[in-house]
Amino acid sequence: MKIGVLGTGTVGRTLAARLSELGHEVMIGTRDPAKSRARTTPDAYGNLPLGRWLESQPRLKLGSFAEAAGHGDPVVNATQGSASLEALEKAGTTRLDGKVLIDVSNPLDFSRGMPPTLFVKDSDSLAEQIQRDFPKTRVVKTLNTLTAALMVDPWRLDQAEHSVFLSGNDAGAKQAVRELLASFGWKDIIDLGDISTARGPEMLLGAWLRLYSALDTPLFNVKVVR
Amino acid sequence: MKIGVLGTGTVGRTLAARLSELGHEVMIGTRDPAKSRARTTPDAYGNLPLGRWLESQPRLKLGSFAEAAGHGDPVVNATQGSASLEALEKAGTTRLDGKVLIDVSNPLDFSRGMPPTLFVKDSDSLAEQIQRDFPKTRVVKTLNTLTAALMVDPWRLDQAEHSVFLSGNDAGAKQAVRELLASFGWKDIIDLGDISTARGPEMLLGAWLRLYSALDTPLFNVKVVR
Predict the structure, then answer these.
(1) B120 touches chain A (CB under 8 A)
(2) Interface residue A39 vs chain B (CB under 8 A)
(3) Which of A42, A48, B137, B198 has the fewest CB atoms below 10 angstroms from its CB?
(4) Helical axes B126-133 vs B199-215, angle rounded to 10°
(5) By three-state DSSP, how is residue B138 classified?
């Protein structure tokens, strides 16, 4: 498949690399490709400069948000939550119309200190904001409850005996995302319902952040035991 | 031990019955014991009238919030979240001073329709509100992420291979609660840290409510796989 991945941080890179490894034609999108490629210092999270990292991923293409959105279906939103709506606007409504948008972002607000809070929650969610702004796009929320390394390789923990969630209004879109998740190795994929159910996994971040601190590793996930 | 359980709903009854079965001297507290005992119709959740139910629990005592708080250490807050601060005020600051208060409540707001939202979250929690109002009480948040039947009998699911959380400022209080949880059968008890970490498990309700709907049963829990 042709897949666009918006965002060049850890999550975008990890998803793009794995999708590429699985044989998909992936274009990774960023605000200003020339500027991003020219950067020579690590980003705020210590990631390799993008140009250097791309050398290790010769099959990946780099483009603008608009080019990556135009290239792929599905398109993955792996931008920072606080920048997601703006990035998707740059990607362009018409380029996203009718497409599956896999939203893995979180509405994290770092302005009030650590751990971050959520800038939308409980009676609304970032996934719903995106769906409202892009009504013809088939938004599916998933994977936002995990560190990037586990998103694409659930077998790193307990033979993949743990859970991931799906929320979205379009059954066909959810089925397509389910198949993509299965190709990553996911076994327990729980369909929570329509896009409003994304409030649940987004609010799960409140627990995730405290577990990250208590366990001193991001390599954990929840298994829904029933 | 002498234990006070505030609240006579499903959660309060379930905890009181189990604690009594384990040999503790339990007093269950309600706003108006005479009125509660005189009731002859099921409550809003279909529970037996309290008097009828108490006939099946001859070792349980019934008292006011103040009497139950005076009777026990620990005291369990199993009142509805929206009524917890008022119930604890009726229990009385001096009766709660120095005691372990096990807070199993959730800040659920049913006024905006179903599923309920949370009336405090993210940058504060009900557990912190309680701790602020009762600064000499040793508040421990736990068990709020589960349906009552699982709180007291984790072995109903997967040989108790799932997780429960602790949040609180007092290490001794958390140790006491840990032992009580172990006596219920809990094996994976995760100390998240101080009382502010209760924001995590309280926000987990957002996911719990959607899972309850998607799985069509409250008999589930999360296992933190790491």
Answers:
(1) no
(2) no
(3) A42
(4) 140
(5) strand
Q: Mark yes or no for CB contact B190/A202 under 8 Å.
A: no
Interface test with A, best of B203, B208, B217, B220 (most A CBs within 10 A): B203
DSSP string, A42-104: --TT-PPPHHHHHHT-TT-EEEEHHHHHHH-SSEEE-S-HHHHHHHHHHH-HHHHTT-EEEE-
CA distance A123 to chain B (A): 7
pLDDT tens readout for residues B48-86: 999 999 999 999 999 999 999 999 999 999 999 999 999
Query: Domain extents for chain A?
Result: 2-215
Q: How many residue pairs from chains A and B have C-beta atoms closer than 8 A?
A: 127
Angle of helix A199-215 versus helix A126-133 axis, rounded to 10: 140
| Fold (CATH) for B2-215 | Rossmann fold (3.40.50)
Evaluate if pTM is beyond 0.80: yes
ipTM above 0.90, yes or no: yes
Which of A57, A56, A59, A68 has its CA nearest to residue A32? Answer: A68
Q: Which two tokens mark B216?
A: 């069509």
Plot region of A196 (φ>0 → left; ψ -120 to 50 → alpha; else → beta):
alpha
